[in-house]
Specification:
This protein has ten helices and seven strands. The protein is α/β, with parallel strands linked by helices. It has one domain: Rossmann fold. The protein has a seven-stranded parallel sheet with strand order 3-2-1-4-5-6-7, with helices on both faces. Strand 1, helix 2 and strand 2 form a beta-alpha-beta unit. Helix 2 runs parallel beside helix 3, helix 2 crosses helix 9 and helix 5 packs parallel to helix 7. The radius of gyration is 28 Å and the shape is elongated.
Length: 344
């Protein structure tokens, strides 16, 4: 005859078994639902990706993925690109925002620099273009600047060299009598899978181009700038968010953002504004000269706009920040133009 305790334990065991059975039954039902949902989600995601189209928010549709599968030799000539970047901004109407001013733009021969040069000229500024070696691109930029009715001088040299930076500023002032706007835009970028792939020599090349070049240009320019003048630095979304495969480049862009804010504080009492634009992926020679051809096809696809920007979609931001009539109360900011929500 079982004791009361034995009966109690037996009853409890049976109750527990029923609870376990019920829990497992519920679990099996949920597992089946989760599996079905996963299959459905995967299918929906695939269908969505196939159906997603690039976002077009301007007056004329911009090129979208797949971009041409092309790899360029550095430093990258815009003239060699299978799909030429758009820089003309035909819908942008000048209104004299920079009338009578002079601008010096580094890396102004192609890409964002070229697009900025054209709009500055359209707004009434004379433009000096500093570039490394891309003579054909520089000549093309000069033709477009002069077609806008502005004067243009070309300055060939390496921004890593402080002597060239000083010469570029001196030649600009000699040609136009003054300097009102400095746009630091020249850059070097090369991807790397691991930090171990970035040698001291390579790190030095990136730092001296992207950071030293900006600092040296600004140092040479500041004595010529006056109240109402401005410096605009080209930063990057990688300086805001980092990039797993652009370790040294991201580092320099973060430094540029900090330099922008520090120099803005330093020059504020003189009425000289310093700001930066932080682009997302932009279709310029910089990227086909960095990535393998097969990766270039998807360049910019990961943005909210699902495509890379064209230079003409960036250049109005540089006009805005340079023009005293637009941005006289703005200094020390990093303006994200990334094609995505949330960059800051």
């Amino acid at each position: 005859m079982k004791s009361v305790d034995s009966k109690s334990r037996s009853n409890n065991h049976g109750a527990a078994a029923r609870v376990v059975s019920r829990q497992r039954e519920v679990q099996r039902a949920q597992d089946a639902k989760d599996q079905a949902d996963a299959v459905s989600l995967k299918k929906t995601k695939k269908e969505k990706e196939e159906q997603e189209t690039p976002v077009q928010a301007g007056r004329r549709p911009q090129p979208a993925n797949p971009m041409p599968a092309q790899h360029l030799r550095k430093p990258g000539n815009e003239a060699d690109m299978a799909l030429r970047p758009r820089f003309e901004a035909p819908d942008y109407k000048g209104s004299g925002k920079l009338e009578g001013m002079t601008a010096l733009i580094t890396g102004g021969d192609s890409g964002i620099g070229r697009a900025v040069a054209v709009l500055y000229a359209r707004e009434g500024a004379d433009v000096a273009i500093a570039y490394l070696s891309e003579d054909e691109d520089a000549d093309e930029t000069r033709r477009h600047v002069e077609a806008e009715g502005a004067r243009c001088v070309l300055l060939k040299g390496d921004v890593r060299d402080p002597a060239f930076c000083q010469k570029a500023v001196d030649e600009t002032v000699k040609a136009f009598g003054k300097l009102d706007i400095l746009v630091n835009n020249a850059a070097f970028q090369l991807h790397a899978a691991s930090i171990g792939d970035i040698t001291d020599e390579r790190l030095d090349l990136t730092l001296r181009t992207n950071v030293y070049g900006y600092f040296q240009m600004a140092r040479a320019a500041v004595p010529h700038l006056r109240e109402g003048s401005s410096i605009i630095n080209t930063g990057s979304v990688t300086g805001l968010e980092g990039s797993a495969h652009l370790l040294d480049y991201s580092t320099t862009k973060g430094a540029i953002h900090a330099f922008t804010k520090a120099l803005a504080s330093n020059l504020q009492d003189k009425g000289i504004r310093v700001n930066a634009v932080a682009p997302g992926p932009v279709w310029t020679p910089l990227n086909p000269a960095d990535s393998p051809a097969e990766k270039v096809q998807d360049f910019g696809k990961q943005t909210g706009m699902k495509r890379p920007a064209q230079p003409e979609e960036l250049s109005p931001a540089y006009v805005f920040l340079a023009a005293p009539c637009c941005a006289s109360y703005i200094t020390g900011i990093v303006l994200p133009v990334t094609g995505s929500v949330g960059a800051a």
